[in-house]
Structures are given as structure tokens and as C-alpha cells.
Amino acid sequence: MNRETLTWVGKWTFILAAAGSAVGLGNIWGFPYKAGTNGGGAFVLIYLGCILIIGLPIMISEIMLGKRYRGSPVSTMKAAAMESNNSSSWQAIGWGGLIAGIVILSFYSVLAGICLNYIFISLGLEGEIDSLAKFQEVTSSPLQLLFWHSVFIVITAWIIAAGVISGIERMVKLLMPMLFILMIVMVINAFINGNFSQALNFLFTPDFSAVTANTFLSAMGQAFFSLSLGMGAIMCYGAYMSADQDIYESSGIVAGLDTLIAMLAGLAIFPIIFAYGVEPNSGPGLVFISLLSIFADLPLGNLVGGLFFLLLSIAALSSSISLLEPSVAYLSEKNILARPIASSLLSGVAWFIGLGSLLSFNVWSELTFIGSRNFLDSMDLLANQFLLPLGGLFVAIYAGWRLNPAIAKSELGGSDFLFKLWQFFIRFVSPVLVFAVFVFQFV
Ligand code: PHE
């Protein structure tokens, strides 16, 4: 297919697809538990700052590069470097992105598989349940994890194999409205059955005594991950954007929707956490352990729980397809492999690496890889604290300092003021802050 003509059909598809990529486990599972363990309001405020002054300028840059050069992240960066007479090594940004996508997909799919499994566990709830024991039961069985990990990755691969228009576009048009409606239902449920004011207080009253350097690191990592930045997913989706679409506006809407869903997730979860006297700082188990025991108690809780985990699975699916797309786009644009074959092969690689993460819940739980971390935590660290921030840092340096500014200006359009504002942030603010936070983790 001629990639020049490959653009989203619907006017809103780019927004839906990019928001679908951004809104995922990071928002609904990660954000609430990180806000919970980092003291609530102050974390939320720092997170919002990171989205605005680090994330947004980088998102604008990724979309701009994708939209102009219209290829997979590797060919986009290569073409950009050629047009601006830079070294062709800048395409390493693209390669790093493809690798990060597969690494993230490998463990993302294991976690999303657990969400799929929990849809059925919740629907089958009858009265009291020992939710910690249930979580241990689910994660101690490699076969059960393997089954759901495989189901999730097959669905992902199948959508990507179907193509950009008949796969991705069709799915996000279906999934994103569903996700939004389910989220509203969950917030209404929390409003009726939970302690809403305590949750509002927890999320929006900053207590800076709880802030440490680590809060910044965690908030920035979360912002990158949540906006899907630093690995070319947004760049790749930008490559399918129609020429007349406004980049500033689209980036603002996508970042806004992502933030809105994270906040709504907090408002869906914390009111019931507080109403049932559960501590907000229970960590990654917040939705699987704390919430499940509450669903067991709630009127119609099995239905509410089933819907909640369906919501989580849908959000995960619209993100996982964007993790696979960049590398599949690369192989198929070069005509190295047909799209369905590329999709099966690369998802197979992610599936295989995912086995390590799956085993780290049980058989390999004592094995450590990076530092004292098990396989899953090591992959998570590699992606979130290294690959994504480095990817984002280099995108910022490239777009701010190496890309010919006249090209950026003509691609971004809009007023001089907006351009200067973006240029200021992408040159002096985003890269400096990412670098500072990145280096700080080693001291
Ligand atoms: N943004 C997704 C989430 O919040 C995860 C993701 C990261 C997707 C990077 C694509 C690229 O869950």
C-alpha cells in the first residue's frame, strides 16, 4: 500500500486512537495506586505539571514528526534527519521506540490478562471473598496467567493484523465510547456507594510533607507512560493523521482526555476505598485486592466489578495495539513481511518475553534481574525509567535543536506565539527537566 495515502478515515479517529493509546492500565490501575502511595494531592499536582510542561511539548513534537514524514518511527526519524541534514543516527530514536514497544507489550499483556480474568472472577462473586487469597491463587498459577496472557495478545495481534483502518480505526471507534460510558457509570457508583468528599479531599488537597525526590521521579515516569510518549506510538499514529488536522489542538485534547480519565479513575476508586475503611496506599494490589473485596460487599457488586474489569481490559486493549503498531508498521512498510505475518511474529516475541513476567509471580518470584527486582519489575523499570524517558529526551532534543525550525513551523502551523511557546518548552524546559529527573535516579 502506498503510505502517502494511508490516513485515518474519520475526522476524530486520530484523537480516539491516540487517546486510546494514552488511556490504559497506566490511568486506571497505575495512577490511583501511585497517587495512593505518594500521599494523594501533592502527587496529583506534580503529575499535572509534568503532563503540561514536559509531556505536552513532546507529544506535539512526536505528532509533528509523524505527520510530516508519514512512516514508522524508524523511517520517520530517518527522513527527518535527511531533510534537515542531520546524522542518520537519529533514527536510533525510532529503533529504541520499536524495542520499547515490544518490551512494554510483553508485561502489559500479562497484567491485562489478569484484568480479563478478573471480569469473570467478579461476575462469579457470591458474598464474602478473601480477595488477597484470590489474587494469590490467580497469580500463583502459571497456566492460568499463561491462558489469559495468550488470549490478550492474540486479540491485540489480530486487530493489528487487520490493518490501520479496518483494525485500529474500527476498534477505537467502538472501544473508546464504551470506555467513557463505563467510566461514568463507575464514578456514579462511587458517588452513590462511596465517600466522595473524602476522595476529593485526598486527591485534590496537596500535602507537601509527603513529597520526596522520588515523588517527582514517579510522577514524571507516570506522565510519560500514561501519555504513551518516548516510544513512537504517538509518532506512528500521527503518521496516519490527515493533513488538515491541527496538531496543537489534537495534542491538547489527547493529553486532556488522558488526564480526565486518570482523575475519573481516582474518583471511581477512592470513594469506595474510603467508605470501606481500606487504606489508600496499598500499592499495585489496590484494584485487584482492595477493590475486589469491596465489590463482594457492594449491592450488585459482582456486576459492578465485572464492568470495572471490563473497563480496565478495554482501556488496556486500545493501548496494547499502539505498542505493537510501530514495529509492525516498520516491517510492513519495507515490504519485509506482510502485515498479518509481521503482527503474528512480533506479538509472538512479546508473548515469549512476557513468559518471564508471568513466571515472576510464581516460579521465578525469587529470581532477581536488575538489582533486587524480579523479571516483571525489571522490565517495568527498563521501560519506564530508561527507555521512555530517554526516548522522550532525544525526541525533545531532536525537535528542539536539530530539526530545521522552518520545517517545524510549517508543519505545526498556527500563530507565531504558539510556535515560540512550543519552541521554548521543547528546547529549554522538557529536555532539562527529563534529564535532571533521569540523572537524579542514580544519585
Ligand atoms: N499509555 C498507556 C497506559 O497508560 C501505556 C502505553 C505506554 C501505551 C506507551 C503505548 C505506549 O496504560
Features:
443 residues; mainly alpha; Hydantoin permease; 18 helices; 0% strand; globular; binds phenylalanine
Written account of the structure:
The chain is an all-alpha fold and 443 residues long. The chain has a single domain, classed as Hydantoin permease, CATH 1.10.4160.10. 77% of the residues lie in helices and 0% in strands. Helix 3 (41-69) crosses helix 4, helix 3 (41-69) packs across helix 9 and helix 5 crosses helix 16 (375-402). The longest helix has 33 residues, at 301-333. It binds phenylalanine (PHE). Phenylalanine (PHE) binds at residues 21-22, 24-27, 104, 225-226, 228, 231, 233, 319, 322-323.
Distance between the termini: 49 Å
Radius of gyration in whole Å, from Cα?
Answer: 21 Å
- Give every kind of bound small molecule, once each: phenylalanine
> Which of globular, elongated, flat, extended, rod-shaped describes the shape?
globular
CATH-derived topology: Hydantoin permease
> How much strand?
under 5%
How many domains? The number is 1
- Tally the helices: what do you get? 18
H-E string: HHHHHHHHHHHHHHHHHH
**Could you describe the largest sheet, including whether it forms a barrel?**
none
Give the averaged pLDDT, no decimals.
Answer: 94
What structural class do helix, strand and pairing data support? mainly alpha
Q: Name the CATH superfamily classification.
A: Hydantoin permease
